[in-house]
Every structure is written in structure tokens, then in C-alpha cells.
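Crash report, auto-generated. Payload:
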Amino acid sequence: MKKSKKVLVVEDEKAIREAYNDILQMAGHEVSLASSGLEALDVLALSQPDVMLLDLYMPNMTGSEMLQKLQKDRYSTMKIVALSNVADIPMKAQVLEWGVDSFVTKADLSPKQLIQLVENL
Amino acid sequence: MSEMKVNCQEAATYLGVSVKTVRRWAQNGKLKGHKVGSRGDWRFSHEQLNNLFHYDDVRQLNNNILVDIKSFLLENASKIVKNANVAHQTDLEVPKVRMTIVKKMNPSCVAVISLLSESIASSDISKKVFENMSVKIADEALQAGLTIEETIDGVMFVKKSVTKSLESSGLLLKLDSKTLTAVLNKINYLADIVSSQVAFVFHNSHQKVQEEYFNSEEKFSRVFDLAPVAYTITNLNTGKIINANEMFSRLTGYSLSELVGKSAQSAGIVPDKETEKMIKIRRQMLDKTGYISKYHRRFKTKQGEIKTLLCSSVIVKIKGEPHILTNYLERTEKQALAIEQEYIGLIQAHEELTKLSQAKDQFIGITSHQLRTPATAVKQYVGMILEDMVGEITDQQRKYLETAYRSNERQLKLINDFLKTAQIDTSSYALRKKRQDLQKTLKTAILNATPSLESRRQNIVFLGASEKLMVVFDKPDIDLVFSNLIDNASKYSPEGSTITVSMSKQNNHAVINITDQGVGIDSKDQTKIFDKFTRVRNTFTTPDNGNGLGLHWVKKILNKHAGKIMVTSKLNQGSTFTVWLPL
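Recovered output after restart:
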């Protein structure tokens, strides 16, 4: 039995946010949700998840802005997965430099792959 | 592996000669080929064409005709140069005024031809002699006031004219094919030395001359101070005036000490009317082209009078730093208005273009986000049901949902492809080019393709180049080129067949051949396959395995790398796609 993880999903698109919520909960993980970078910072101030799934393109502080704001050492045990709509190669290189653990194009992820991604980090 | 044949047109491109010459060689047996089709035109194998390329040096060929060629060139040198001038002027529509300057180089061109004629018949003339001569030519061209383009074009047209006159003299016909290609290649090679050396010297000395000129204070300040036209020199980065001449002081009423160290705005000579936007546009034009001719500014003199000035600016380097050298001519208000109208027109056109370009980028950005998001959500929800995360479903429900899932996947891929096309089509599409090992990228593409080839029990054979080929290219894009070509080769070939990928160096190009044993492409379709959304129907075509964009991208990307692609193919025998990338 895999260990249950605390996952924070930061995604502005409601349908996708809730899909990720359902998929990860069904796989036995504890999920919290945020719909913008600002909201995510509020959540992070209260508790630290094991994994953060972070959409890079959102209104009210994009994922990239948020990454720059996060103090990396404060969250050193938290794994970060950057989610993008497009396979943006320069952006991928950039966010990996900011200490992101994985860069994923959302449309490439099936529910099963999402679970594997979170569990294998 | 089946042997691919090329037609006369392709052979001509490949060899760098005219189609007529290829046919003549074929008729004379200098180039082995065979006739096909109802109209009976020639076809040649690549091997045969390559044989023509791999020749011994001319020096080993003792041939009387070479002596004839030598004397022919010597006797006709002036005529050849004259013809080159005519072609130069008409082909490039060079204005007559510029041609009189270009023609100043005619004696040098005649000298090049005599040196060329010497070296065709003898191996004693070394590359060094040509290089030295090229330095001299570049110097002369500089002094005569030719631009680098005019000089290089001149060399190119002389080369063309030499080959053309040799062709029409009939002398080339008397040579056997080996000597013939040796001669033609030597001409090309020597002309290349001249042009590359000219370009190199030109570039270096041009900068040096400019810097020396501005650094030799005495000479420069005399010209600058006594010029009958008002001049200023402004630091490009700080915008501060570092020098102005007597005429400028007279024009504005300010003394030199009141101007130096200040920007025109802070010196108070530019009235408020000049907008930030105009300054920005001027700066952009300067950055882009290095100069702006004919724009106008209104300056306020010390006495408060507004003067309208017609200006021209050019970027010059002084002690390694960029500065703007500007001259000013006084104009009447009416004259200025006419110019202003022209200028405003330019600004408006510029703004509209900028807006359009921004709108286009925005459109691409929005579509990328908005179109993909709903389809991504569908993928998640249908995926959850299909992966039995929310309970069992009936077989029929599963079948329908799987169809929906696949359709949605196709939709996502189409959106992706559409975006990629839009990106590649737009001129602003930034290539992240750098000099790197091309073979490495090709090998990676082959490696990545191997699993899918294995699933079709196809073999891939790679014949690498004997040396490392460093090419300036954008890795993801060239990877896309190779992957697409290998993928196509596999897709349109039967199971168990072999795909051969080879790489070699030919005439300053890296050449990659990708050959399959597949269905081939009908000659009527061969020109169409690189167009957007073209799909040729054959036994391997299914709605799922292509969108008619792959080869369009390949061609676009290669264009942006100054490369090219050519296909030779025969129905039911296979195709070879050949890619050229400049080294």
C-alpha cells in the first residue's frame, strides 16, 4: 500500500481542478485546492503539502510569479510539479532552474499517469 | 535497397550546372543515365552524379584542352567581365549610378580571371595567392566605395560569366566528364576563396577604417568642424551630445560648451512637441538598420526661434562605443510638412504592423490556452470512467467512451499541430539557434524512433559522416525535421522493410539522406507534398496517421536555417528525402 500524500492542486480551471481532486482522492491522497497563486500562498502559510501541482498560467499571480516568490529553502521537502497547457520548451528550462521537480503538459496526462506522477515523486 | 533516380532538373540542381548542360553531358555519355517515360527524358542515379564529384585534382590531368581553356579565358577576360556587369545590373536591378562604381573593379576582375586561367591548367598557383589577391580586391573595393554586397555579387557574377562563356565556347564539351567536373569545381572553389576572403577582409577593415577615421582626432575634427553642414555626435546609450560643429552652433545659437554633456532635450533645443513615441521609433529604426535618412525635427534656438531641420543619422563606433552621427539641414515649414506627412505615414504603418503582430501573438496564446483546456478536462473525466475509478461500465458503454476518448485525443493533437504551424509560419518565431554537432541530434532522433520501428519489424541503418559536422541550428526544430522524416519513412513502408539514414559533407553543406523501401510518391505529387495540409492517398493512409502538416513544417524549418529539402521517389519502390544544411 502506497503512502498517502498531501497534495495541493493550484489550477484556475474549475473542471480540471476538480478532476484532479477526484482522481487523487480516489487514489487515497489528501487534496487541497487553490484557484490562483495568491490563494495557494494562503494555503501554504497554514500547512505544507508533500506535493504541489502548479498551473503556470493563471490570473491573479501566475505559477511562474509564484515560484519566484516562494522561498525555495522554506519548502525544500515539498515536491513541485509545474503544469502547462503547451509543451513550452524555454519555459520548461526556466522553471526547472527555479527548482521545480517536474514539468508536465496537462493534455499528456491521463488520470492513471497523474496518480503515478504524484506517487513516484 | 532500391536505387533512386533523379531527373535532369534535380541533377542540375545537385551538380550546380544548367539543365541544358546535364542533357548535353548525358547525350555525350559524359554522365551515365537512361531515358524513361513517354517523353524520354533522362534519369540518373545519385551514385552516378556523385562519381562526377569525386575526381582527382586537375593537376594530375595532362590535357591540351586545359591549355586551350586557359588561353580562351585570357583572351576573353574583358568580355567576360563586361557580360558579368550586364548580368549584375539586370538581374539585381542595380541603379546605373552604383554600376559605375562597381565597374571600377573591372581591372581587378580581369586580373582574377587571368589568375583563374593560370590555375586551371596548373597546380602551382596556391590558395595563398588567391587569398592575397582577394585582400587587394577588398581594399580596392572599399576605396572605390563599393558595399560588401556589391563586391561579393560582383565576384559571383564574374564566376557565372566565366562558366557561361566556357560553356558556349564549346571547349567544355571536349573534356571527359572527370576533367570537366574537376575544372568546374576548381572554378567554384577558387571563386569561393575570393568571396569568402573579400567578405572577411571587408568586414574587418571596414570596422577598422571607421574606427581609425574617428580616432585620428586631428583629421576628423578638421572635417567635422569645417563641414558646411551642421553635425552632432551623440552617445547612443546615454543620449548625450559629445560633440557638435560650428554650423550646429550657428544653427541653434548655443555654444559648444552649452551643448556637450547634455541630451538635446535637456539642452533645451528640442521643443515639447517631440513625443517619446517618435524618439522610440527613431531609436528602433537605428537599432535595426544602423541609419535613418531624412527625418525631421524642430529645434528651438537660443533666441527662442523654432527651426525645422531635416536630419540624417548613422551609427558610428568611437573608441568601441556606439554613437549617432547626425547632420542637419534647415528646411522651410512647408517642406518639413511634406516630409512629416511621409514620416507620419511610416509611423502609422509601423504601429499598425506592431498591433497586428501583437494581436496575432495574443491570438496564438489565447487559443493555446482556451482550446486545450476543455479538451484536457474531457480527457480527465472520460479517463476516470475508462480506468474504472468510478465503478464498472458495460462493454457497450466502454466502446462508446473509448471512441470519445480517441476523438478527444485527436482533437488535442490537432490543436497542438495548429499551434505549431502558426508558430512556424509567423516570422517572429524565434529560433534558438547555436553551433552544435548535427550528427548527435540525428542519432537521437533515430534512437527515439527505434521502438516504433521495431513494432513494425522495420530495420534502420545509419551511415554516419566521417567527421564531426558542426552546424548552426535550433535543436528542437531540427529534431522535429528528422523525426518527421523518419516517421514518414516508417509509416509509408511495409513491415519488415529497411530505412537507411546517411549523413555526409558535400560542398559546405551537411547532407542527410533518408531512404525507404515504401510506397513511393507519384511524380505529380512530389511538388505538392511540402504544401500545408497535403496528404497523398495510398495504401498506408489512414485518417489517424497524419494531418498533412509534417512536411510543411520540415520545409519551413529548413528555410529558416537556410537549408533545403528534395525528394526523389518512384512508385512502389521507395523514396529518398535529402536535406541540406549549410555548414
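Post-recovery validation: The CA atoms of residues 45 and 88 of chain A lie 30 Å apart.
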